[in-house]
Amino acid sequence: MDNVSEHVDITELEVKLKKFDQLQRKVEELKELLFGLETANPTEEAEFEEDLYKCETRLDDLEVRVKKLINSINVSLSVTAVEKNKYENGTFAQTKIPPIILPTFSGKYEQFSNFKSQFDDLITTNEQLTQSQKLYYLNSCLSNEVKEFASTFDTFSSLYEALESRYDNKRLIVDIHVQHILNFKKIERENPKEIREMIDCIKKNLRALKLLNYEQNNLFNVFLLNIMLKKLDNESRKNSN
């Protein structure tokens, strides 16, 4: 009976998880609508934008928490299945482990820190899992060229440490985030959507830099403002003065 209730809980959680995408799309629509309002009061617009940002951040946090909760239930079920199978059959081979929703890593340096943090929370620190299970889950998270990075002779520890050694490069990651800002395409004509995309790009990469302990200061803000103005079309640049 306990297993049935756990499965029901997972189903309910997975339904809620799908709703996060819908809510996030709604937030994006509101952001575009806000940026297209030419008569909006600047103060109210700034407050509304800040509220939307907080809402977006909150949605991201909730999505991660729901995923962790689903995975926690699935891991518990997998351990129960393993122990039951050992008791009944004396073997591990026939055990079917419930799927766990895990982050994926495709080889982008700037995504490794977030991937590592989520994977550690879900798998690395989970004492209920064996090293073989952890290796299985780690391999399942890797895609693209990173998949080829793994060797058939790897243990969980050796593969994990190899990934850390290659991708946990703070200096390179900082440079990538800065380049994302510098290389954002120039806006040729007044276009609220493209301006919003530029602002989102800058904010996203600034948040990432902040997580790497790089704080903004007045001098940095001057440079950033200059970069933003150079990316704008002539009409938008005039309106910003």
Structure explained in plain terms:
Helix 1 packs antiparallel against helix 2 (42-89) and helix 7 packs antiparallel against helix 8. The chain is built from 10 helices and no strands. The protein is an all-alpha fold and 241 residues long.
Q: In angstroms, what is the radius of gyration? A: 23 Å
Q: How many DSSP H or I helices?
A: 10
Distance N to C terminus: 67 Å
Helix content: over 70%
Q: Please tell me the overall pLDDT.
A: 75
**Total number of strands:** 0
Percent range for β-strand residues: under 5%
Structural class: mainly alpha
Could you spell the SSE succession in H and E letters?
Answer: HHHHHHHHHH
- Report the major sheet: none
Extract low-pLDDT stretches.
1-8, 91-97
Shape estimate: globular
Coiled coil: 13-40
Keywords: Coiled coil
Short summary of the structure?
Pfam families: DUF1759. Helices cover 75% and strands 0% of the residues.
Task: Name the descriptors.
about 240 residues; coiled coil; about 75% helix; 10 helices; mainly alpha; disordered N terminus; DUF1759
Show the helix and strand layout.
Layout: H1 2-35, H2 42-89, H3 109-124, H4 131-141, H5 145-149, H6 156-167, H7 170-182, H8 192-211, H9 218-231, H10 234-240
